[in-house]
Amino acid sequence: MKRTIKATIIDVIVALLIVAIVLIAINLFLGQEIDNAIQLVNQVAIKVENMSEQKQTEIDVTTNTLINYPKYGTQYATIEIPKIDVNLPVYLGDTLEILKKGVGHTSGSYFPGEGGSIIYMGHNSKNVFRRFSELQIGNEIKVTTSYGEYTYKIYDMQLIKETEVDKLPIQKEKEILMVYTCYPFNNIGYATQRYVVYAELEK
Length: 203
Prior knowledge:
Elements: H1 2-53, E1 58-60, E2 65-67, E3 75-81, E4 86-92, H2 96-101, E5 103-105, E6 117-121, E7 140-145, E8 148-161, E9 176-183, E10 193-201
């Protein structure tokens, strides 16, 4: 009887050791793949959740206000400036992380179609607004959103100090798109000047 119990215990211990060895081997050879698979599943789940939470942005034409504003940090539009071959995504917000991805929309300013001041900004890097100096009065800027397309015509360009916030006024009397970048355009590091392009909505 004692031999049988002893043999059973030894068998259990051996089985546990084999399972442990197998698990260690799986972790060594497939651990990274398993982690990647788990991360992929999590990413898909997050995207699906965000898509289910994000409602379609629309505009109420009677009041010129948006219904279901986009979430902070999400892309809601693209901006095209044919004169300088710009075609970039526009995100709500103006953090450094957002500006690495495209053009930022200053929260607090209006959205295209709402009839007020819209403030966009982007880096003066090669693939963003480096060629701003080539823009001229009369050039067009097109903003395409999920709820409509808006074309603006440039009527002014100004070089301002970063502290001159009055040069980027937020008002509701007229739809004006103000797009700015750091100046000089080839500047590396922190800049205290901004080059602003002002454009009004074409009727």
